[in-house]
Sequence to fold (180 residues):
Amino acid sequence: MPYNRSVDEISRQKLLASRRRFGITAGIILAGTGFAKCYSSFGHAHVLDATDPIFPLTFRHMMMVVGLIELGIALICFLDKKSFTAVTLIAWLAGTFCLYRLGLSVVGWRRPCPCLGTLTQALGISQALADMTMRLIAFSLLIASCTFVIVELRQRKALRISIANGVPLPAVTGYPPASS
Fold:
């Protein structure tokens, strides 16, 4: 009798495919914003020389550092075939962005975040629209990546419990399940 993959294995494969698509999409977003930050950090806008209200760096240096981090995580998103490392890094970065935004409001910063630097002017986009878009992107990346991380960790825990209890595991990577 030919072996049929279990429902769990099919669900796991669909989850991995969804997580991979999310990682690629997030990688494209992070590559774009990372490039925009790095590019803008070389600009001549006066805001780039102002000191960040949270960190003791100029916006120019902050944008360069964060842009390089985004580009690095984007690269991992493109190269990580299983994508768990990628979604974990996306969750960390998006969480950091959300905490930074919270910190800005705590210190009374009421201006739009210069996240995309002078690129907003080059594209003809208002800073307020760019600011709202970046907030939405950060929050969406946080929710989606945390969801993937939590699901993966729950599956790993269930697998450890099954192994500890001696429960036969469904076939993964082509091995048939143990017969009773």
In short: The longest helix spans residues 127-164. The chain is about 70% helix and 0% strand. Residues 171-180 have pLDDT under 50 and may be disordered. Residues 7-162 form one domain.
